C-alpha cells in the first residue's frame, strides 16, 4: 500500500507543479499584456498639448478680429486664422480627445461654444459681415478661450492624477509579476528537484538491477560449480574406485599370501596393480590436459570445406582403430564451405568418432555423414551401440557428466564438454539424439557461409575475455 501511495505521489506532485507553473506563466503574460495596453492607451499625455494648440489659435483669431474692429482696413488675414482655428477644433473633437474632455466634464460646454464661434465665423469675409458680427465673434471667442483655459488646467490635473495612478498600477503590476516569477521559480525548482530525484531513483534502480544481475550470475556460477563438483565426484566415484579397489585387493593378497606365491603369481598380481595405477594416471592426466587445452586455446577462423575436414578425422581414427569400419558419405556435392578453425573442427569430429567407437560393439560400423540443412552445414557421427537414456541425454555435454550406460567404460566426461565448447567458440553447435539399445547420433553444425568471420572472431574474443575476467 505504501509503495502504491509513493508511486501516486511521485506522479501527482510533479503534474500539480506543472499545472501551477503553467497557470502562473499565463497570469504573468496577461499582466504584461495589460501593462502594454495601458501604455498604448494613455491619451491624457497629449491632451494638454491639443487644448493648448486650440487655445493659441483661438487667441490669434480673437486678436485678428480685434484688429479688424479697430481698423477695418487692417492687413490681418482673418480667413487664414479662422481656417487654422477650424483645424484645431476638428482635432479637439476627434474620438480620443473628445472622450478625454468628456472625462473632465468639459466636452459639452466647449462643443456648444465652438458651435457658436463656427456659426458666427461663417459670416466673416462675406459682404454681409458687419461690425456687429465681429463684436459677437470676439465675445464668443473670449468665452471659448476661458473654457479652453479651464479645460487645459483640468486636463493637466487629470494627467497628473492619471500619471500617479499609472505609476501605482505599474508598481503593483511589477510587484505582482515579481511574486509570480518567484512562484514560477519555485515551481521550476520543485520540478527540477523531482527530476533529479527521479534520475537518482532511476540510477539506484539501475544499480540495484545490475547488482541483482551480478548476484544471479554469481548464483548461477555457484550452481554450475556445485553441479561441476557433483559431476566430478560422481565421475571419480565411478572411475577411480575400481582401480583403487584392484590395487587395494592386490596389495592385501600380497601381504597375506605373498610368501606362499611363486614368482609368476607375484608378477601377475603386480602387473594387475600397475595396470590399475596406469588407469588412474590416465584419468588424472586426461583431466589436466583438457583443462590446459581450454586455457591455452587459440581459435583461427577461416573458410574451410567441412567434408574434407571430416574425411581427415575419419582417416586419423582409422589409423587408431583399423579393425573398425567407418563409413563416410558427403551429401553436399562439395558445397560444404563453412567458417571455422580446421584444427579444432577435426578435433571435435575425432572426439565424436572416438566416442562412437568406444561405446559401440566391435562388429558394428560407425557412419559419418555431411549434409546441408536450413542454411547450416552439418556433420553427423552415428554409432549402433548401447545408446543414452532420455534422462541422461540433456546432460551429456556437461563437464564430468557420464551417462549411466557408460560407467563400465574408462572416461572422464570431458570430451563431449570440450567438443561443445569448441563448437561454440566457432559459432557452431553440437547436439545429440539417441535411443537406448539402438545407438546415438552426435551432430556438429556450422553456418553454411563464410561471410561471418569477423562476427565469429568477435564472439570468440568476447568469450575468451569473459573467461579471463571470470578467472
UniProtKB/TrEMBL annotation:
The chain crosses the membrane at residues 12-32, 173-199. This is histidine kinase. Keywords: Kinase, Membrane, Phosphoprotein, Transferase, Transmembrane, Transmembrane helix. InterPro entries: HATPase_C_sf, HATPase_dom, His_kinase_dom, HisK_dim/P_dom, HisK_dim/P_sf, Sig_transdc_His_kin-like_C. It comes from the Bacteria. The keyword Phosphoprotein applies. One of its GO terms (molecular function) is kinase activity. It is an enzyme of class 2 (transferase). SUPFAM superfamilies: ATPase domain of HSP90 chaperone/DNA topoisomerase II/histidine kinase, Homodimeric domain of signal transducing histidine kinase. PANTHER family: HYBRID SIGNAL TRANSDUCTION HISTIDINE KINASE C, TWO-COMPONENT HISTIDINE KINASE. Residues 235-450 form the Histidine kinase domain. It catalyses: ATP + protein L-histidine = ADP + protein N-phospho-L-histidine. Its EC number is 2.7.13.3. Pfam families: HATPase_c, HisKA.
